[in-house]
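Cross-posted from the bioinformatics board.
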Amino acid sequence: LELRVFPTSFAYHRATSVDDAVAVLAANPDAKILAGGHSLIPAMKLRLAAPGMLVDLTRLSELKGVTVGPDAVTIGAMTTYDELRDADGIAELFPSIVEAIGVIGDQQVRAHGTIGGALAHNDPAADLTAVFLSLGGSVVAQGPNGERTIDGDDLFVDLWTTSLEVEEVITKVLLPVPGAAVKSAYRKHAHPASGYAVVGVAVAVDGAGKASVVVTGATSKPTHLAAAEGILAGATNLDEATIAAAAEAAPTGLELNPSPYASEAYLAQLIRVLTSRALTQAVSR
Ligand SMILES: Cc1cc2nc3c(=O)[nH]c(=O)nc-3n(C[C@H](O)[C@H](O)[C@H](O)COP(=O)(O)OP(=O)(O)OC[C@H]3O[C@@H](n4cnc5c(N)ncnc54)[C@H](O)[C@@H]3O)c2cc1C
């Protein structure tokens, strides 16, 4: 096996606006968007990706920033992990986002990686994908025919695959402002070599019917733990016994992706333990 550590040659276009990016993507079907570059560039160096052109969004300031509205929080797709964690209102409204960002990669990854890139890349072991889904998020994507909103449940299709068209740019991420009773948390067991999630569990619960529990790492895409959600949604009190029952049921019906590091039984046990820890952390808030 020949080890290559440099990409194949490619053209480069620095986008001047989202319209410009969409037009260049539509005219060059082998082009790819460059955001933080922390998934795409490694994939190009390993020759797992060989785009003919990169369309660089990094200078588009209109894709940056966080706005807290009365009903929804709007996050520009090019907002980095660091900028998102530190934005006004995020820690109070979404503690699970802060917890997830705290365990993503290293400081360089957090300074450059973007929320739009993380969601578009849909790595099966990504952290923010599960948190986004647990918070009921959606994305706004702009393509040649204008904008459309894609619900989180419709965005993630399979390993590294989303329902985005190749010429579509995620411009915004929308998160509904949670009700006062909603509590969220994220817990992860990181692979000791890569730091990526072997299993991560994101929860958002209010003890009055709202229960969102989403796993990453163990499955081909972020997936709702429906059995746990059912138990939590039917409970009026998120006490220890309810959390234990939800955690025990959490892996039910999942199609798990074992690896040499983690067998199916180990993944299922991690899901139980991390569901319990995330729920316990959330209700303590
Ligand atoms: C050493 C290292 C450790 C890491 N550890 C973790 C970890 O622990 N947890 C974790 O979750 N991630 C981890 N990552 C990945 C990191 O979070 C990436 O930054 C992220 O997955 C992709 O974001 P990006 O902005 O870098 O996107 P890029 O790499 O620039 O792009 C990724 C993909 O998304 C597409 N894309 C980007 N932006 C858009 C957009 N606005 N609209 C449509 N398509 C778009 C690109 O074309 C490309 O296909 C790690 C990365 C490295 C290098």
